[in-house]
Amino acid sequence: METYFDFKNQKTDFKTEVIAGITTFLATMYIIIVNPAILANTGMPFSGVLTATVLVSAFTSIAMGIYAKNPIVLAPGMGINAFFTYSVVLGMGVKWEVALGTVFWSGVIFILLSVFNIRTHILKAIPRQLRYAIASGIGLFITFIGFVNAKFIVDNPATLISIGKIDAISTTFLVGLIITSMLVIKRIKGALILGIAITTLLSIPIGRLYGDAAAVNFGNSTLVTWNGLFSWPDLSIIMKLDFINSLQFAMWPVIFAFLFTDMFDSISTFIGVAEAADLIDKNGDPNRIKESLIVDAFGTMISGPLGTSSATSYIESATGVEEGGRTGLTAIVAGLLFLPFMFFSPILSIVPSIATAPALILVGVFMMKPVIKINWTKFDDAIPAFFGMVLIPLTYSITQGIIWGFISWTIIKLVFGKWGEVSWMLIVIDILAILTMVV
What we know:
This protein is mainly alpha-helical. It has helices at about 1-5, 5-10, 15-30, 30-40, 45-70, 80-90, 95-115, 120-125, 130-150, 170-185, 190-205, 250-275, 290-305, 315-320, 330-340, 355-365, 380-395, 400-415, 425-439, and strands at about 75, 155, 160-165, 310-315.
């Protein structure tokens, strides 16, 4: 194992990789419950989607570790699942079986693009200044997600967002954030895991001894809720996708939308994690990027048959990387940890969102490191980089931030005659991006 993953040259060891894998799983396990909760609005059975979510997350993460040897975890993507549910099924009136078919066909195209190295060429077309901006923008985004999950930042009709109430929940979150920060500053091994565990313990009294969690915990007055131990897996929606009707002409824009969104979510995740953790090769590209993109494409392709929206690489993988994870063993450990929850999914309700929020927020801090590499004194670089960076959290979409970073870069460079800084592939990407917004 040490030889296969090259622990020595990667400056890691078995224990570090296992801790990193556990940390990544704890940061991503929310998807086991959240993904079924979103897709159930289409009429799909909650328990069936939960089983599919576990299977996809486990298989693809393990494959990433074994084949691509990268510490990146995959699972059904947030945002993509919302598009599947609210735009395709509910908005367009597409049957969920047909929608699953479009996920499968987008995965088939993914595989072709990855095998023939087209996706790698797309990644290489991204200017390095924009890569730094994307990594930093994802850092801001994941921090924002953490604050929102903790209800420390809430929506406000007058100002769009504002600080939430200072109550038992937000106070407990802040205490957990301070403790986790101290552990990180002291460079304690497993700091993020300890932070999650401590914050969970601090949350137990809420709704029992003081405070009320009903507004943030699906009507339950207690924040840490025990919902049982065991549940049987539901295999009822496996292979229920509609292969034929999903290929009709009216579905092509849907296939393209899944393809485009998933592709840039994945590429940006690889860039963000690699830049933040210095997991780059001699050419300045993320390690084993072709193999990683093939696994990501495989994940998308099997998502439809198993019964969920597209799998994608998770930015929460940065939590494990920050704990020292440098090889595929991190992804394998995280993937294996998904499997028991085909049977023990109720246990996940023990860990509230405010317990994982400090880890996400601090990962945002770690991922801001590449921002110092942006050439802020060269405005034709700095302006599109800034647009790409800030629009990721402000639009709540990695894809939108990337699109506007690309388009602004292309326009600015061409207007000032710097044609050599705009590749033909980048122009193609710009055209495709515009099509996704107008179709």
